[in-house]
């Protein structure tokens, strides 16, 4: 294991011996999900030596250990982004730490701009695949062979079995769930309308500043990955209205009830896996 990850894991283990099965990252405006967890222990990021601390709006910055419907979960309430100035390998440190603590499933969530006929602000979309080529790859640098192979396959990043669980759960709970392909951009500026046209022509319909580097890292270390995006706004140029971070947070609050139900019930099913 990487030395810095081993040190972080040791710091966590001084506080709790909790064994998570699922690691859950909460996207912008989606942090309220954490209030529905039965929390057993919590550690502010700043108390974990070397752990990157989030500065983005709507990202509080603590690790929560607890139960979602009896399934042991480590929840990252707040994530760091590349645009905050952290090197890309630092951005994915939390994923490696969760893996080191025993998590087998990486459940990613985010708020994203959307471009698809069927989307509207508030749409929940299951991520089917991603485009990573506009951000640095988080695996650049020496490979830790214990963690994963040098050239990891990315044919099925988003686990088919987990996708099925989320889709069946949405049906059962009567929650509309769309699908999409997510592209990560560096940010922090939002895209121009021309950039959105280009990215859409390349096959993307969800646009954001996170997630993909985390998904790659989780796959590299052998975790199963799934992701739900909340379409917080139509992507630049679609309605012509300027984009703001406030509307992203507000959309999270509006969608909180469906989002929470979908994530809770999906994790419950994943506990059976
Ligand atoms: N673009 C990039 N990131 C985002 C957006 C967007 O439109 N909305 C929320 N995060």
Fill in the keyword field for this structure:
five-stranded mixed β-barrel, alpha/beta, about 270 residues, 7 helices, 9 strands, binds hypoxanthine, single chain, about 25% strand, Rossmann fold
List the secondary-structure elements in sequence, H or E: HEEEEHHEEHEHEHEH
Shape: globular
Compute the number of structural domains.
Answer: 1
Q: Helix/strand/pairing class, anyone?
A: alpha/beta
Strand count: 9
Report the span from N to C terminus.
Answer: 26 Å
CATH class: Alpha Beta
Radius of gyration: 17 Å
CATH architecture: 3-Layer(aba) Sandwich
Outline the structure in words.
The two termini are 26 Å apart. The protein has one domain: Rossmann fold, CATH 3.40.50. The chain is built from seven helices and nine strands; from the N terminus they run H-E-E-E-E-H-H-E-E-H-E-H-E-H-E-H. Helices cover 30% and strands 24% of the residues. The longest helix is centred in the last third of the chain and has 26 residues. A five-stranded mixed β-barrel has the order 5-8-7-6-9. It is of the alpha/beta class and 273 residues long. The chain binds hypoxanthine (HPA). Hypoxanthine binds next to strand 5, strand 8 and strand 9.
